What does this fold into?
Amino acid sequence: MPTVDISLATGLVTATTTNAGAIVARGIPYGIAERFRAAAPFPAWNGLRDATQRGPICPQGVSRLAWLVGDVTYGLSRDEQCLVLTVTAPAGAADLPVMVWFHGGAYMAGTGEAAFYDADSLALEGGVVVVSVSARIGLFGYLTPTGSGDSNVGLRDQLLALKWVRENIIAFGGDPGRVTAFGQSAGADSVLALMLSPDADGLFHRAILQSAPLRMRKDRGPMTAAMRTSLADALQRNALTPSSATTEQLLTMQKAIGDAAAAEYAATPAAQMTYGPIAGETPMSSPEDERARLKAIAPQIDLLIGHTEFDAAPFIAMASTKPHQLPVADFNDNTFRDRVEALTKAEFADPQAAMVKDWTAAGGQATTYQVDWAPPEAPMRACHCIELPLLFGTPETWAGTYMLGPTDNPIDQTLAKSVRGAWSGFARDGARSLPGHLVVGT
It folds into this structure.
């Protein structure tokens, strides 16, 4: 494909220009970091840097939802120096709204560099500049050994990426004064964590939270403290230090520590997502200050928040499935359906409603949505992640994923265009661009 050179604050990059009229710059480094340390901005370079290839991803195991959505990391290299982002913009753009995407994966898996999150259609149809962020996850991002580094380095990476956007997005035709942070699942939790950080003030102006696991972020502190002790013990048993352990050794410890914590703290919501930002540790507000913080920022940030009709279906199916078997959802079984609906209500709908109530009471603007769409033969129906093919990638990217079922051409392209229009319209004009509640599909 043809290329074009883009001048950034740190140097020149070569980006791809597509036949459809998009400029795509991949794998741009925005930060550099030592293990368990807060990152610094990536230093300037001389000459021309290639931004036509996908960048490295944080070392990780297999996603717990790979069976549902496929292996989003297939073919991508892994490296602890994984602080990269991809920018997709219409050619010739000027002063366009910016949408910064934070991927899901329970803070354990995924990357913004995945083809599943390619944003060509969203950028071109919506007239927006899309930035997809990759940062440290799992143990590398959220389990710094006590006394051996900085806290919440994965969240600090995301803050650094937002600062990169502020300083560089004009080069792609984006407006740094109209930035929307949006994410799904753990990515939505990241957006909320960023809102709870005073360091993010002014870095984004609208927020979209897709299937945010709002309840799972509660009471993470004690579990994380126990996990840190487990990490210290594991390092000592193997005569290792945080710096001398290999990446693979840390990945082995990450899984063992996470599994043990999930079992020990099973009665707490946080055990469903063992790694993640820790409230009260830099750069986040303390748990006691969170409510006041949200009230303070509500008038400054328009909010779009929602979930899918059967968001919890994959998790209920996984809980009753033996290892190495494919989870099965039987919506004709009233017990299964009741459990899915109850967990969707408890983990997504009710916490969302409470947040919106507080948000609007504090003077903020909020729009809610629910995704009811699913292909006719989708085994999990309108489940967790079902909206992603409506926003990102191509039909070919998502073809054959279990979530969409065996139907040929399962993605409703008319609906997809409508959803991309709604999301980009929100990025442009905020909550006033949408009804108070949006139903996606029927």
About this structure: The chain is about 35% helix and 20% strand. The two ends are 39 Å apart (CA to CA). The longest strand covers residues 174-184. Residues 334-361 form the longest helix (28 residues).
